[in-house]
Specification:
Mean pLDDT of chain A: 89
Strand content of chain A: 35-45%
Number of helices of chain A: 5
Largest sheet of chain A: 7 strands, antiparallel
Number of domains of chain A: 2
Structural class of chain A: alpha+beta
Helix content of chain A: 10-25%
Strand order of the largest sheet of chain A: 4-3-2-1-7-6-5
Oligomer: homodimer
Low-confidence stretches of chain A: none
Number of strands of chain A: 13
Distance between the termini of chain A: 50 Å
Order of helices and strands of chain A: EEEEEHEEEHEEEHEHEH
Largest interface: A-B, 55 and 55 residues
Chain lengths: ~230, ~230
DNA sequence: CATTGCATGTCGTCG
DNA sequence: CGACGACGTGCAATG
């Protein structure tokens, strides 16, 4: 990894065109040739960047450029597309290189998959007498997160999100349309389950006869722990 | 901006829990206190990070930790939520600070807004005799990209995407449902316009009686340049 | 390899 | 300040 702090300007052409005026920035060149241009604010997203696979070519400025203060021109070319990033380097404040080796990577816990597992275990959160049919119930247009059966034997399709927004309701609606065409399992109720449900999503769901269920992740995890302790 | 290259481990708790095993990494601390942990690969997204606003507290390791090789513990606490990132610093290879100042920011061209402007100017791409009613036609559920009128006086609602996928068709469908409830402008035709339209989106649109229009950005820009030259 | 759906998404914009 | 849609979205899992 090479770290450079320098006054620089940049031009990107690819899916769009963009320009970055002259200013002092951090330039990171990773081992795979990818490049990040960071300012001293914003968030983790760089002002501009080039994703791997790509190649970096450093060249000397021509006479006019040198007269304007350029000390180097970096051309970063994406290997598989015509995306291109040109960085004009002016005064360099820091230029250092370090060998980092391969990273073991991030270990995650607590994503949507976990919510789905918990709700499958605690399917009676839908109401007493509900039973699990199966998780990831396959249909022609993709898997329904959970398919369940209500106390009267009717089918229930459940879509789970961490945060429930309109596109989740649309997704569930497509599943319901499809499932309700199958006379073997129709009629199918829909349940939209999420840790938080946005008002517009709730309105749309209600308008379509889809039930909303707010999930309390901590409480569900707590029940799970208690179960684990008892058995 | 402070740059540190060090052997480190990290734990994040917030919207999820995650752990980063000991390895050599780049740690960037920005002026607003935000922190990025980068490995020497991947992409522009850090392995782990904390977004502003947040505060960084550096503390000494306790005896056990010091015996294990820790030289410092960094606790990054988000100011408005309970997101927390703890970084355990072991051997430090580089530790440098630079003042970058405020960045003038990125200047963009060629996004969806530009496509919309071009199609508004070149509305006859829909077919001869079409006229523009207005861009960003407001409805209760959001703005329709373009509202136009066909040669026979009927209304046309246009949704524009760079890449046309299913959710764009869903969005246009919601607008059409709403607009067609208004007797003053009903019936309203739908046109789904994009530089590229995915097969599934085309099938769904066609099934719903929505017309698909593939936009050639370069050609449209070319026409625009010619116009600009002529007038 | 193309498609799909998630993300600690981030980021602007508008009400 | 919250909600919503766009993004050079990136990214992994899957058919």
């Amino acid at each position: 990894m090479r770290l450079v702090i320098a006054d620089c300007a940049a031009h990107y052409t690819g899916r769009l065109s963009a320009h970055l005026p002259l200013a002092r920035r951090l330039v990171v060149v990773k081992a795979d040739g990818s490049v990040l241009l960071h300012s001293d604010g914003g968030s983790y997203k760089p002002l501009n960047w080039m994703s791997p696979p790509c190649t970096l070519v450093v060249s000397e400025p021509d006479d006019d450029e040198a007269a304007a203060g350029l000390t180097a021109v970096w051309d970063v070319q994406h290997t598989k597309s015509d995306d291109h990033l040109r960085i004009e380097i002016y005064e360099v404040v820091l230029d250092t290189t370090a060998d980092l080796g391969i990273d073991p990577g991030l270990v995650k816990e607590g994503v949507e998959a976990h919510l789905q597992a918990l709700l499958a275990e605690q399917i009676e959160l839908l109401g007493p007498g509900h039973t699990l049919v199966r998780r990831e119930y396959m249909t022609a247009i993709g898997p329904v997160d959970i398919l369940a059966r209500d106390p009267r034997g009717g089918s229930v399709a459940i879509e789970i999100k961490r945060r429930g927004e309109i596109d989740g309701v649309e997704q569930l609606t497509r599943y319901l349309d499809l499932l309700n065409r199958d006379p073997l399992i129709a009629p199918v109720r829909g349940v939209f389950a999420a840790q938080q449900i946005k008002p517009q999503a709730r309105v749309l769901a209600t308008d379509r006869g889809i039930e909303c269920l707010v999930l309390d992740y901590d409480a569900m995890r707590g029940v799970d722990d208690v179960d684990a302790r008892l058995f």
